[in-house]
Design goal:
Catalyzes the dephosphorylation of 2-phosphoglycolate. This is Phosphoglycolate phosphatase. Belongs to the archaeal SPP-like hydrolase family. Its cofactor is Mg(2+). It is a single chain. An eight-stranded mixed beta sheet has the order 5-4-3-2-1-9-10-11, with helices on both faces. The radius of gyration is 17 Å and the shape is globular. The protein contains nine helices and eleven strands. It is α/β, with parallel strands linked by helices. The chain folds into two domains: 149 residues, 3-Layer(aba) Sandwich (Rossmann fold); 65 residues, Alpha-Beta Complex (Hypothetical Protein Ta0175, Chain: A, domain 2), CATH 3.90.1070. Helix 8 links the parallel strand 10 and strand 11. Helix 3 crosses helix 5. It binds 2-phosphoglycolic acid (PGA) and magnesium ion. The site of magnesium ion (MG) has 8 residues, from loops. Magnesium ion (MG) binds next to loops.
């Protein structure tokens, strides 16, 4: 990171990282994110409206990687852009064949999980994984298990590619960033960022790829990571 920075820019996952055990955002992270003295990029598997709203309600500029890198959205002084990488057609084909095989995406008729997705589809972890993996492989796609959902995604899309785009828009290198996350969809961010922190509840892939594994889990672990990299 440049000498002048009091702290590194962050790439922060949401579910399992800013949340607590019962999936609610820990209220302590609001001040921590707002007061961080460098840019914060929220990098999530969720559709863009969720992280955009999080930024709005936290009171930080909208700098978002959504859909595991399928979408990069900036609405700041330095950049106003909504970048869509890949397309959803392949994931739709997988979903159609999955339904034909008698399975269900598992979100009910309303399905707010997928309503605003542009590039991938998410499937409930209550639904069977193996047929989903097989169909995805057949269509040349990949499945991420985030611990919160299965995501059917193009193989060239991940949060690490998203971080390259986001860093570019900030006039930074991806290696300037500190990444914090909890699951296999964060591994690509961990590889691209300069330093990476997995919270204690992280899955094996995230722990393996991270430079450091926190003693605490969930938002407590996130706050522990900030303590480690923040202004002294
Ligand atoms: O939406 C998910 O499945 C996981 O979201 P996350 O990337 O913010 O942890
Ligand atoms: Mg997560």
């Amino acid at each position: 990171m440049p000498e002048s920075d009091p702290a590194p820019p962050l790439a922060v996952d949401i579910d399992g990282t800013l949340t607590n055990r019962n999936r609610a955002v820990d209220p302590r992270v609001f001040d921590a994110l707002r007061e961080w003295p460098a840019p914060v990029v929220v990098a999530t598997g969720k559709a863009a409206p969720y992280p955009v709203a999080l930024c709005e309600f936290v009171g930080i500029p909208v700098r978002v990687i959504a859909e595991n890198g399928g979408v990069v959205c900036f609405d700041t002084e330095e950049c106003e852009e909504f970048v869509v990488v890949g397309d959803r057609a392949g994931a739709e084909r997988v979903a159609e064949r999955y339904r034909e095989a008698g399975h269900d995406l598992g979100w009910g008729d309303l399905d707010l999980t997928n309503r605003w997705r542009e590039t991938e589809l998410a499937v409930s972890r209550e639904s069977p994984l193996e047929p989903l993996r097989e169909l995805a492989a057949d269509e040349g796609l990949r499945v991420f298990d985030t611990g919160y959902a299965y995501h059917v995604t193009s193989p060239d899309v991940d949060k690490g590619e998203g971080l390259k785009t986001a860093a570019d828009r900030l006039g930074r290198a991806p290696g300037d960033f500190v990444a914090i996350g909890d699951s296999e969809n964060d591994a690509a961010t961990f590889r691209v960022a300069g330093e990476s922190y997995a919270v204690a509840n992280a899955d094996e892939t995230a722990k393996r790829e991270a430079d450091y594994v926190m003693e605490s889990g969930y938002a407590e672990g996130f706050l522990e990571a900030l303590e480690a990299v923040g202004p002294k």
